[in-house]
């Protein structure tokens, strides 16, 4: 409100007022979510002298169009603010707000004479064109010409004139250069004028009655026009006979012929008359639970009887069906005024509106309106009408039209409380099933008192009810048992519930495991000599120091020595091989085993061939289990800690300190060997201070001491490995013995899932079959290609699938069908979209498959394009339609 007032004051639309009047000011919501200002001018309109500016006569309007063959229709955007309020009358438009009292300097929306004034404005602007190649009716402008070249000149002249007067058109509502056009309820084509078929569609599309009640509605509608149809009784006789209660209702050819004849008669003269704006209009409206109907009529000058001008009916949308009775009846008025606006807006005489809802008669005097009525009141202010009450028994014509969409079946009660909130009926159902089953397996009488015995064949259903209902939502073993024991019992209750929960796929998929990880520690083999077994890794994310931002860490698994190599970026496989030759092999010889993670440098063919030529074995960690390369991971932690200690004040200088970090590590005593790497490899510990004397050792003595040191080191490593194994196994549990083909669940902890919020994503994926058992703690799985992860996993990331007859597995995916020679799968929903080349790819969720099968597929693969349209229309919300696609789950890169 503050923005609207300040902007209107700045643009000169309003000014502060001291008027004794003050209309109510409020905002109503538009369909797009924005707000429209609305002023309640009902009191002012009631005492305003109506502007009698003449509207064009239809007879004279269409005369110049007789030889026209091409048309353009323009719809003017509201230009009310271009019309100045007569000086001295501004006080009449005053309105009050919490921010003050204001009045309009220009014509606002909602004044009763605004349409007539606007008609006068447009006529003055286009006056020299009217009846030559232009006709104007309120804000509708029709341009007509004999040929296309002439028409283009006419359209250009009209648009230029409008532009000069700052009048603009709504492009989306205009029609340009068409041979046929609808205007003022008529169709203009090739110089001919014919009635718009929409006027009689409501009658011509009347569905064939299938019950006696539907037929009675049709005949009740027809009785109002029987005096205009010659021989009405004879024509309707076959239909009248069917309403008798003495004979069964049976639709015959004779009845169908009579039904079609009456529908045709309703749409022909002398029943249907041409609207005449110079005469008063009568509008009859009604609304049912499913539709609205209306009849526009005028008193004929020949017989002084009320003749229909047009009929209207439409089905209510699901949202409109939820309106209360008053709003549905008011909606019927609104839809009828919208349908015949070109005749009723600015009508010379007040429009009489008949309705069977008594409260509508007081619409203009209502002190309080709901938001929907407030929004409509701005539209109603454009019409001069009087609402009158008429009992439903006399409002038969619109009532019959509104009930075309109604079913004769008894309406089911409207659901006020959603079914999701009701659990009582479910409880009664399961109890009834148990009691029915007791007829085959009676209660043995050995259970606790006041508890219901559950027979064998209903135990699975009862556990399913207790475990999955909305009031429980998959609780654990203890809570499920406690819930069941409140009412039921059977001897094996604990064992059966435990078996069911272990087999519950929802729990297995969405609940995290609280048990220790599977798989006891399997220490790596202990080397027999220095630098025969090495481990590699990279430290990234460092601040740039003299161009370096990465560190290559090389660790000897025998005596824990390290080499640290600064790099400018992550190297390729070839570059990594050259780094080892330069910084390791020339100093310590060739290794027999190289351990690393699954970085791109180490899984390439180049790296594999390089190791093969060296005679070295390549060892890679299993998927998402960095503990396999624990020694180098621990070295990286120590490296980062040392750099933080000495480079905190100068992070960009870390590369200058890297050599000292390497020296410090190699001179420290290792907890695994009891000696420093320098001492194990060189046979001496570098002195801390300068020394004048140095002991000399013969070569044989040095060799004996070296061999003794290596033997002691290997024994120390074995003791350390055994100690570490015992400590680690305190927090682990033995892994089950997996077999090839066994189904397992895979932890989603380290796997990125598309289209999932991490909080609500499943904790386990699958189930997947075991393709190969590689060792005591490593398993290869058969994964879909769409997951794009290495299929070898540590057993701590797996858990076996448990099956039980008490908890049947989920339904299998829908069958694959053939389409154009290929397989066709069903899409459950579209999750996201991304550009790819000149087209787009969509992230789809396949029907019957888990999130691990989600994949990006080209839009051309989706057969049902409406699924794409629905997704684009609901960006976010989630749409949940289904469609078919030619792509296989898990098979797209």
TrEMBL record:
Residue span of region Disordered: 874-893
InterPro entries per the UniProt record, alphabetical: Chromo-like_dom_sf, Chromo/chromo_shadow_dom, Chromo_domain, DNA/RNA_pol_sf, Integrase_cat-core, Integrase_H2C2, Retrovirus_Pol_polyprotein, Rev_trsase/Diguanyl_cyclase
Intracellular or extracellular location(s): Nucleus
Domain of life: Eukaryota
Protein name: Gypsy retrotransposon integrase-like protein 1
Family: Belongs to the beta type-B retroviral polymerase family. HERV class-II K(HML-2) pol subfamily.
Biased composition (Low complexity): 874-887
Main subcellular localisation: nucleus
Gene Ontology terms: biological process: DNA integration; DNA recombination; proteolysis
Cellular component terms (Gene Ontology): nucleus
Enzyme Commission designation: 3.1.26.4
Cited Gene3D superfamilies: 1.10.340.70, 2.40.50.40, 3.10.20.370, 3.30.70.270, HIV Type 1 Reverse Transcriptase, subunit A, domain 1, Ribonuclease H-like superfamily/Ribonuclease H
